[in-house]
Amino acid sequence: MFIDLTINNVYPTFRFSSDEINAYRARKGDLLINLEKYLLDGRNILDADKIQESVFPQQDIDVFISHSHADEDEAIRIALSMEKIGLTAFVDSCVWGHADELLRKIDDKFCIPKGWSNYSYSLRNRTTSNVHLILNAALQQMIERSELFMFLGTQSAIKIDDYMSGEGRLSSPWIFSELTFAKSVKRSQRRIFQQNNESFEKMRSESSTPEFGFSFSLPKLKHEIGFRDFNDWLDQGKSVDAGVAGRISGLTHLDRLYSKLGLGQDQLSEPRIKS
C-alpha cells in the first residue's frame, strides 16, 4: 500500500443509476458458496486458504474502499467512476453477503448436535470466530496489495460520542480493523508499468428487539480530503477503454490526486512506465 486517505463529508452523487449499481454488485459478488470444496479429503476440516481464494479476488487492486454498510451505494458509485478512468477498485461489502451465506452453511452442517433443533452456542462461537479471522486476514491481504486505501468518513461510519468531546468513534469492528491495519501496514512505492513484459508491479522500497453495539476509537489516517474536492478530481479523469493503456491513464490520474494531497515530487518522481 502506498498511502491511506479519508474522504470527508461524503454526500449522495447519484452519478450512476440503481440498475448500474445492482449490475456491479452482481458482477463483483458472483461467487457461489459451495461448502464441499472447502472440505479437505471429505473430512470435517475447513480449508482456510480455499475460503480466502474463493471469497476474495487474488489480483492486485489500485484502490481499496472501506465504508459503512449504509454507504455501499456511494462506495460502488466511486468504484464505477474509477473503473471508467482506468482504475481497479475493491468494495469489500460486495462479498460480505456471500461470507454470511458461507457461515450459515457451516453452522447448519457443524453446529447442530445430533438430536438438537437449534445451534450449539459454544460450537457456533467457534465457527464464527474462525471464519471471521479467516476473512479478516483476507481483507488485510487485499489492503496490502492495493496502492491507495480509501475510507469514506460519513456519519454512518463515524459515531460522535457526546461524552468524548467530539472524538470520532466507530461502531463497526470491520472498519476499525481495516483502518488500524492500513495505518500500520508496510508502505510500498507506486505501481510501475514494465514495458518489456507488459505487466504492472509494485516497486517496493523495503426494530423491536433492543439493539446493542460496540464502540472503537477511530484510527486517524494520514491524509484527508473533502468529498467535493475528491469528486472534482474524479470528474477531471478521462474515460478510457479497458486494457493496459487505460490502466496507465488511470494510475497517472491517481498521481494528480496524490499531488492534491500534498505528496512531494520526490514521492512521485518514479515514472509510471518503465522501459
Question: Which characteristics define this entry?
Answer:
275 residues; alpha/beta; single chain; 11 strands; 9 helices
Please give the number of β-strands.
11
The helix-and-strand class reads alpha/beta
Radius of gyration: 20 Å
Q: Give the uncertain stretches in residue-range form.
A: 162-166, 204-209
Helix share bin: 40-55%
- Structurally, how many domains make up the residues? 1
Concise description?
By secondary structure, the protein is α/β, with parallel strands linked by helices. Helix content is 43%, strand content 15%.
Descriptive notes:
The chain is of the alpha/beta class. The protein has one domain (3-274). It is 43% helix and 15% strand. It has nine helices and eleven strands. It has helices at residues 18-28, 48-55, 72-84, 93-110, 121-145, 173-184, 227-235, 244-260, 265-268, and strands at residues 3-8, 63-66, 89-91, 148-153, 158-160, 168-170, 191-194, 199-202, 216-217, 223-226, 273-274. A five-stranded parallel beta sheet has the order 3-2-4-1-10, sandwiched between helices. A three-stranded antiparallel beta sheet has the order 5-6-9. A hairpin with a 7-residue loop joins strand 5 (158-160) and strand 6 (168-170). Helix 1 crosses helix 3 (72-84), helix 4 (93-110) runs antiparallel to helix 5 (121-145) and helix 5 packs parallel to helix 6. The longest helix has 25 residues, at 121-145. The two termini are 23 Å apart. 27% of the residues are buried. Residues 162-166 and 204-209 have low confidence and may be disordered.
